Amino acid sequence: MKELTSFEGIKCTNCTTPLEGEFCHHCGQSVHSVLRPVHGLVEEFFEMFLHIDGRILHTVPPLFLKPGFLTLEYFSGRRVRYIAPFRLMFVLCLLSFFTLHLAADVISARVDQRHQHALITGSPSDFEDDDSADEVQKDLARKLASLEAARAANAQAGNNAAIATQIDSNEQQSRDNARQRLTELGMPASAASTAATQATASTPKKDEDRNTVDPVNIPWLPASANQRLTQLGQHMHDNVEAVFKGNPAERQEARERLITNVFGALPGTMLVLIPTFALLLTLVYIFKRRLYMEHLIVALHSHAFIFLSLLLIIVAGMLSTWLKPHAAWTGWVLGFGQGALMVWVPAYLLVMQKRIYRQGWVMTIVKFLLIGWAYIWLLSLALAMAAVLGLAH
Questions:
Q1: Where are the domains of the chain?
Q2: In terms of domain of life, where is this protein from (predicted)?
């Protein structure tokens, strides 16, 4: 009673309703003023942080270990102690895609390192497959551009003297092999030397060599829309050309740009996929007479679990990559953990569907397989859309 009597005679400063606690039961405004000393703001910040942290501890473990528990709690009206479904899904989505982006960057960097190592330590081609002087010049220009990119990477890494010497040796050997092939094709030695020198100095002019796509002309669209579609098509064409036909530096830049664009488009694409998945649940369980919002909560919690599992799988893979060279047994343990997580995901979703919709195992499995088949198509479409958006950026 002390808490109630302490507010007797006090009215809400916003709507003048008599207060019965720290918050107005009519408009929800707090009795505490926002004009307070700095230490009060610091205390409020830590109180809010600890409150959120407490909700994390109440939300994440049951989300991962208890299929359908959070959803049934929400259906029962017990929601205050848990993080809201959309916020939970969105945060885990961003974390998982951010970690996946880091893992993709690590893999891309390792592939580039192996390519550069093979380029530096391997023997240069003797141009045996070149049948004309133009092909020899273009092949030599590509090889010298690759070696120049390797030289720049070595300089950025600290100028390893042994690697620099190997690059210089390979460059000189490539020039000699090009001159030898030009001589074999019937060019005099002096002309072959001049042609090899010209190949060294030649650089492709992007604006002149750039292939343009045909303009889009859809009659019922306005001119600005056709122009925009043409521009997106040109971007896609340029990105594909850079990924597969550019020099190593251009391919690396194009891959990084494509990966960044795709992962940037994935969260927005998933926001479209989740309501569609909820609609699919509504159609499959139409005779259960549940509201669409209930199916949406099921979809949000399902995807939150999937993103959490994806995050754990990626982290386990990255830890395995870092720890395996130092302790081989960690690779086996983390690999087993990844396999267990991959098995747990479909098992969790099946049990969750059984507990929420309360049907027999036969009907639950049939509907689970139907939903899974449709979801794979939806996910493939979402990933394709993200890839297209990434290419068109």
A1: 2-52, 131-204, 242-392
A2: Bacteria
